[in-house]
User: Fold this.
Amino acid sequence: MQSSAMKALVNTATQQMTYRDEPMASRLAADEVRLRIDAVGICGSDMHAYHGHDPRRIPPIILGHEFAGVVVEGAYLGQRFTGNPLIACGVCDYCAQGRSNLCSNRSMVGMTRPGAYAEFMTIPVKCLIEIPSDMDATRAALTEPAATALHALHMAQRASVRPLQECRSLVIGGGAIGMFVALLLRNYGVRGVQVAETNALRRASVARHADTQAFDPITAAGPAESSCDIVFDCVGSKHTRVAALKAIRHGGVIVHVGLQDWASEIDMRKLTLAEITLIGTYTYTMVDLRATVAALHANAFGDCGWVEERALADGAAAFSDLHEGRSASAKIVLRPH
Assistant:
């Protein structure tokens, strides 16, 4: 493919997304392919960059790491893939242990190299994950956030004394990750899940699509103190960490997924005296991603009718709507073509 311009949605400044022509690299590295992007989701970390809160993502930058597309140049020409946006070295101790999400030398699509808010994107072959030929591109683009939820649930399963089905669970945050956690808990047969979400539109969406109780933690009491066996903090703020520790019962498990705030005080006395397990969980492994493709294809996360599609050209408005809380959907997927 000869060098030419492509359309891309570029984070050009704080709270500024610009749809414009961007140069497309003329040559691929020996281990790369070029994808035509068919669908790409807006992630919470993309919103952090949009707000100017991520020092690792410096404008101007093409964000986007939740994608599905078709190879138009390189190996596997014409085949459809999603992919792992975390590019691991493959040789460090963590990679050798199968924990590539903790790779000491990782780089990332949409951060250290151009992302998927564009018509085309390059990515190493080792990051590709094949998707079924009949799988909708928007659903396939949900693989990355859904895999984050799947990884978190597996971590919770390993730490919990009792099976998940016997545990009273609280999910803090009704965004995409919280929604996927609630949906997967339902698929696993867990009943009585509660979701705390401040956005009324998202509460209604969670209640409808995840078939679970959603409440406003600002105005409603929620679960009683020390009553939950497992709490998933899918926000990661100072306030939600306090809420998680208040809700967890003795011997329970808190799974910390969100990354909104960098630091805060937590009740270490309760953590210790109540023998609470606090787990930090980060992204996913290649195995998680492959398992998630299969789970999405098998409708383990439901029909995903809560996901909203928009054109990439309308991406700036999508970011603005998410910023202002105007969208009922916890996930907006952009379509470049």
